[in-house]
Amino acid sequence: MRIGALILVGIVLAGLGVAGQSGLPDLIVKSVRVSPSNLEEGQAALIRAVIANVGQGDAAGAFDVIIELNGQELATRSFFELRKERATEIQIPWKATVGTHTLTVSVDAPFSRIRESNESNNKLSLQFTVSPVMGVRSFSLDIIKLFGRILDETGIALHFKLTDSVFTSLDNAVRAINDAAAALRNASLELGLVRQLVPPAFATDTLYKDAEALVTLYEGMAESFERIAAMLEIGNFDAVLENAYLLRQKLVALSQKTIADTSFAPLQSAIAQFDRVIALAKELRDLLKGAQGRSQYEVAVELFNAFMAFGDELSACSRAIVKQAEAYAAQFYQGEQALNGAYNSKRSLEIRWPGTILMRLELYDLKSGELVLCSEEMGPWLGMVTNGSLSTGMYGYRLVGMTKYGVRRIELGRLQIKQSGSVPPLVRQNVPVGMSGGH
């Protein structure tokens, strides 16, 4: 059974251990999450829970999964079986309400109908916060944070535990790689939820086309991870290496991407660490085939350590990408104070955008997509007073900037205005040469 993979794990372990309790299922709540992150009041969301059977036998009888929000039952889902080593995801639509919430998911509740090897791991809770509607929100930064967070979760998933059971250790490794693939596949669902906030004026913007291209790349990486897991499980190390090279190609392609002026180049250090993983995997494969060299145990330990380090580096790179995006993001001020709530259009609005020497602000009506205001100015900041002329409501904004190197920058977002008044005709202020024209 999985001879090659068993040999590999057996090298790392001091010897064979005793397998877990045979024949009994073990139902767990593997994960609980609310998507997307950074929820605002009234935003459409999904409550998601992954239920898994990590035991030695199938859960062959009926059981319920109960989802509770703040101690109140939100939904119940019924299942008739869950085979061993299988998992399923529950999705519950939810309209976000402001405040701090506790989400609890319980499997095989409340009657414990399924006899399990472990009855103490059937519940998982998550605490999260929904903010009031923000006065200003950058869609561009939201999307970069989304892709960065998914890479971080991928890196975290690549950690697994070695135990005294060779079979359990192998399953843990395979499960970790599949979990990494699942994290990458979340990109499509998360992007779909984030796009629900996008006004019609921005629906075809390059930002979202670039985001779709990243989703395709993430899904390609997920496929490579899944194939690596499948080949590891049957001990086909030649195929493991073949798919590792394919994964590396996708990592390189991702490192060359730029979205919303944010480069994914920090991933190059993760690629360098993955190269070490590949080199060690190749060395161990050759040793298992009879090649001369270092001890198999020494190489195997280095391989597992390098694999863990790759996950750590992937997470570190994702945080560097998000930090870069936050440093480039425009900052909105009401007078001298950072804009936290709605903008009062009777007072001055200042936008500071690091790295730009020219800037244009366009405001759009969210429903019609009509451009209602355009203001342009020299420098890395733009000051504007509308004297209460903009109607109360939510507007989409597009910032167009130019760096001193002649690079065009664009940021999309949303701005809330609370001062009543009439919507003015199109206004252009201080139009510098070279900034007017198309979007």
Helices and strands, with pairings:
Elements: H1 3-12, E1 27-35, E2 44-53, E3 63-69, E4 72-79, E5 87-95, E6 99-107, E7 123-130, E8 136-138, H2 139-157, H3 166-194, H4 206-234, H5 237-255, E9 258-259, E10 262-263, H6 268-288, H7 296-328, E11 331-334, E12 337-338, E13 349-352, E14 356-365, E15 371-378, E16 381-384, E17 393-403, E18 408-417
Helix pairs in contact: 1-3, 1-7, 2-3, 2-7, 3-4, 4-5, 5-6, 6-7
Explain how this protein is built.
The protein is α+β, with helices and mostly antiparallel strands. The protein has three domains: 112 residues, Immunoglobulins (Immunoglobulin-like); 193 residues; 87 residues, Sandwich (Immunoglobulin-like), CATH 2.60.40.1220. Helices cover 36% and strands 27% of the residues. The chain is built from seven helices and 18 strands. The strands form five sheets. The protein has a five-stranded antiparallel sheet. The chain has a four-stranded antiparallel sheet with strand order 4-3-6-7, with no helix packed on it. A hairpin with a 2-residue loop joins strand 11 and strand 12. The longest helix has 33 residues. It is flat and about 75 Å long. The protein starts with a helix and ends in a 22-residue tail after the last strand. 36% of the residues are buried. The C terminus is likely disordered.
Shape: flat
Fraction in beta strands: 25-35%
Low-confidence stretches: 12-21, 420-439
Q: What would you call the quaternary organization?
A: single chain
The topology string of helices and strands comes to: HEEEEEEEEHHHHEEHHEEEEEEEE
Gyration radius (Cα, Å) is 26 Å
Largest sheet: 5 strands, antiparallel
Distance between the termini: 61 Å
Secondary structure class reads: alpha+beta
How much is the average pLDDT? 86
